[in-house]
Amino acid sequence: MTKKESKEKRINDIIDAAMEIFLKKGYENATMESIAKKAGISKGGLYHHFKSKDMILIFVNQKISEKLEEIGHASMEMPSVKEGLLFYMENYLRYWLEHPVETTFLFLSITKILDNSELLKYYQQFTGDYIKYLEEAFKMGVETGEFIPHDTRTSAVTLAAALDGIICYMILDEQLNIEEVVKRFEEKFIKPIEKGAYWCKLIK
Known about the structure:
The structure is a single chain. The chain has helices at residues 3-25, 32-39, 43-49, 53-75, 81-98, 100-111, 117-143, 152-172, 178-190, 195-203. The chain is mostly helical and 204 residues long. Helix 4 (53-75) packs parallel to helix 7, helix 5 runs antiparallel to helix 9 and helix 7 (117-143) crosses helix 8 (152-172).
């Protein structure tokens, strides 16, 4: 194992340990010592990588967001904007539903936003990038002629809010499945702005 690989493994061990400690003991009761012990490193070794548990909390959130960014990049490889958006919706929902630990950690982090200015800044940046990605996708759809001209900012914000909101309902109601939800989202957010649907309305 190279020095770089060894460092990456140590960081991953710290992340796994921190997530477990935060969720089991609660953020307030978690200590750097308990995280270090769980990760199998010395307290000094932990401080070498992270100066505080606040820094660990933010870093873990950044690692989770990287997975979501990968979904965004993959969606841009789809043949059309519509297919890209549908791909993103499905895999965004699938990620949170298939990773309950990360989802629980997200909810825990959100409860700390008002107490942690750095975490608040991080989520403001993350949300801004999230909305920007969706807005750019809708704009591209207009530019390529797939979608009719419309308020792309509003489309992005409402879709983002709907995606994040439905996750909670899907956790509580197992009868809601991803395929059906994505189909409904397509009907509500995509079909009304498709070029073909627009011309059909004009003819009628």
